[in-house]
Amino acid sequence: MADRPHLLVVEDDRDTAEMLVAYFEAQGYEVATVAWGHDAVRYVLNERAPDVILLDIRLPDMDGYEVCKQLRAHRRSENIPIIFLTERRERSDRLSGLELGAVDYITKPFDIQDLRLRVRNVLRRSKYMTLVHPVTGLPNAELVDERLRVLLMQHNWAMLTLQVSGLDAFADRYGFVARDDALRALALMMNNTATDGLTEPDSSFVGQLTDTSFIIISDVHRTNELREKLATRLRQSVNFFYPARERTTTEPRPELKFAMGVITEQAGPYLDNNALRDAGLKSLQPL
To answer: How far apart are CA 102 and CA 71, in angstroms?
Structure first.
């Protein structure tokens, strides 16, 4: 998210649109506005993904529900918070918007101060979600970097890296829901491996290095144990990542491949976070 939050207003009523632009720009936001549903979809997918969308339901070309549905169908825009603005007050209308993934539903006329607070709260939640992976819930981005910075000042550690490939072909055949289920299963497996057999909490850390790679940071004496447990569990479980109808098929299917590697403090020194990340990825060997 940029220093100035970026807001997209999708509103065909010129007076309302101009009021929202003027108000939120005065609050320090960067605001863009469009009046048509197709223009909103085109802007988000081809120009710039905003931090929050204020979306009127009644538009000249398509209703806001359809705009929301199209945005949720694309990876680029599926997690952008959408707040519906509408004159419709029926409970069924509200439920329709929330079922499509809108984060809020505000009826007109609205209190501009109330709207400002709702937008602010949405942004705060979105900021938190950038700290964890949206599918697996594992720490990523800033939280991983923070842990790696601490690691540079510690001793007797090991970092195990796991990478999965073949997910694009997997999603093409089975859909993105199945792909996300596979990622969640891997995250659960990493967590279980890191904590299995421990009678007391230790300093182990499980995080997401990239969308398709994971790390476990632990004491160096646990390196072989973690590697062997994780490799065994992957070999035993990978068939269950596939839909039930294809677990016994002899027909070709998209193959999920795994690679694993370990680096230790003794193999350093490492200059910074990027050096640790690069070393972890370079250590990968096919399972």
So the answer is: 11
Check whether residue 157 and residue 277 sit in a common domain.
yes
**Same domain, yes or no: 111 and 162:** no
Report the domain count for the chain: 2
CATH number, domain with residue 276: 3.30.70.270
Give dist(CA 41, CA 77) in Å, integer. 9
In contact, 54 and 85? CB cutoff 8 Å? yes
Give me the DSSP letters along 56-119: ES--SSS-HHHHHHHHHTSTTTTTS-EEEEES---HHHHHHHHHTT-SEEEESS--HHHHHHHH
CA–CA separation, 93 and 34 (whole Å): 23
For residue 4, is it left (φ>0), alpha (ψ between -120 and 50) or beta?
Answer: beta
Give how far the C-alpha of residue 58 lies from the chain's centroid of Cα atoms, to the nearest Å. 30
pTM higher than 0.70, yes or no? Answer: no
CA 274 to chain centre: 21
Q: Could you read off the pLDDT of 66-109 as tens digits, one per residue?
A: 999 899 888 788 888 999 888 765 666 656 656 666 778 888 88
Whether residue 27 contacts residue 116, with contact meaning beta carbons closer than 8 Å, is answered with yes
Determine, yes or no, domain membership for 134: no
